[in-house]
Amino acid sequence: MILAGALSVYLRDTSKALLPLLAFQVTDETYGLTITRFASGEANRWYVLGVNVVFYAGWNAGTLAGHLAGEILPAVPRGAMAFALPGVFISLLVMACRDRIAVTVAPFSSALSLALYLGHVDSGNVILVCIAGATLGMGLEQWKGR
Hints:
The protein is an all-alpha fold. The protein has helices at 2-7, 19-24, 28-39, 45-69, 75-96, 100-118, 125-145.
């Protein structure tokens, strides 16, 4: 929901009939790709739809393949797969860090998330980190503009 809301700034001219479809298919990975492309002026609603459809189909095909083949894989590939998802998120984070503010907010948010995790704050930690990171980013933007 937060990711789709962040993309809505770039989809103002999109028809009301298409918006729910675009919002439904937004995942962390598609958001990372599309927000990066929007920031550089290389995306539009059709790009978002294409990325979402391809990722949604791939996610479902991968889920089915994992369900069917997951138990027959040897231990080494199964262990490597445990790093695949965090690896994707790390690469998306690195791609999004295009200026000093993002390079400041990303480690701050990561450290706060880790501190909340280690402090056993399980309820609402994602929302707390989003609010804190967004507040820091907004403050830095305003400070930079002075």
